[in-house]
Amino acid sequence: MDEKDPNRIYEATEELAESARESYNTAVDRAFAAQESNMRLTRSFFEDWADTLQEQAELNRHTMESLVELAREQREVFQELTRESLNAYDGFLNSLFSYYKEALEEPEEPGTDRR
């Protein structure tokens, strides 16, 4: 065996070890980068989800406020319509009462029998 043989074996072993170390470091770096990317993606998903949920809640609040306002306006219109209907019915009853009152108060013509 030659003196160069152990040196070459040592150098080859060193190169192999260095290559393995670099491959391992690259794999670890990529794993950390993938984990960081996944964390950013997850954070982004939840932040977007929270923002979307907040926007939906705000939209629901505005919709409910609109519905409450619409219900109030409809109630006011219904109350006015009811008031006008009652006034018209009251006027109708008053006109009937006045008609019968006038009919009873009319002087009786001679020769007519009131029964």
Total count of helical runs of at least 4 residues = 1
| Outline | rod-shaped
Q: Termini distance?
A: 155 Å
Look at the structure and give the mean pLDDT.
87
Low-confidence spans: none
User: How helix-rich are the residues, as a percent range?
Assistant: over 70%
Order of helices and strands: H
Number of strands: 0
- CA radius of gyration is 49 Å
β-strand percent reads: under 5%
Structural class: mainly alpha
Largest sheet: none
Could you explain the architecture of this structure?
- There is one protein chain.
- This protein is mostly helical and 115 residues long.
- The chain has 1 helix and no strands.
- The protein is rod-shaped and about 165 Å long.
- The termini are far apart.
- 0% of the residues are buried.
Give a quick set of tags describing it.
single chain; 115 residues; mainly alpha; 1 helix; 89% helix
Please provide a brief summary of the model.
This protein has one helix at 4-105. With 115 residues, the chain is mainly α. The relative contact order is 0.03.
Please render the helix and strand layout as text.
Elements: H1 4-105
